[in-house]
Amino acid sequence: MSLAFKKAKVYTKSVLFVAVAVAVAAILIMNRGNTVSVWFFWLVEKDTQVNVVWLLLWTAVGSIISWQVVLATWSLIKETRELKQQEELKEREASQKSRAKSLDDQERRIDQKIARSLGEEGGAGKDE
């Protein structure tokens, strides 16, 4: 990236950030005297009047906390899946090692039988 492009990118982000901050400030200032009737399950009585600014604030906080809970849940699910995959991989490796050992033992026994068989045949040939 060229320096001019990076500068343009930084300035654009700065202008957008300031514009959003000004818009949020304007919304809060213009609605500071307004109230709204809210019902939120059993937490607030049905006809309770709440300041709009406080409602916006608590809605934003609730949204951020909810998003964090969703991300934490997703991470937990992902980590659990990875852990299960790693356990299955270790089980497969252990199974492969035991099968390899079993095959090595079987091959060793076959080699011993062949060696004994050749030894007996060689010994029988000397007697004749």
Give the SSE map.
Elements: H1 3-30, E1 35-40, E2 44-51, H2 52-127
Antiparallel strand pairs: 1-2
Structure characterization notes:
With 128 residues, this protein is mainly alpha-helical. Helix content is 81%, strand content 11%. The protein has one domain. It has helices at 3-30, 52-127; strands at residues 35-40, 44-51. It has a two-stranded antiparallel sheet. It starts with a helix and ends with a helix.
Order of adjacent strands in the largest pleated sheet: 1-2
If you average the pLDDT, what whole number results?
89
Fraction of residues in helix = over 70%
Tell me the Rg in angstroms: 38 Å
Helix tally equals 2
Structural class: mainly alpha
Write out key terms for the chains shown.
81% helix, 128 residues, two-stranded antiparallel ribbon, mainly alpha
Summarize the structure.
The chain has 128 residues and is mainly alpha-helical. The chain has helices spanning 3-30, 52-127; strands at residues 35-40, 44-51.
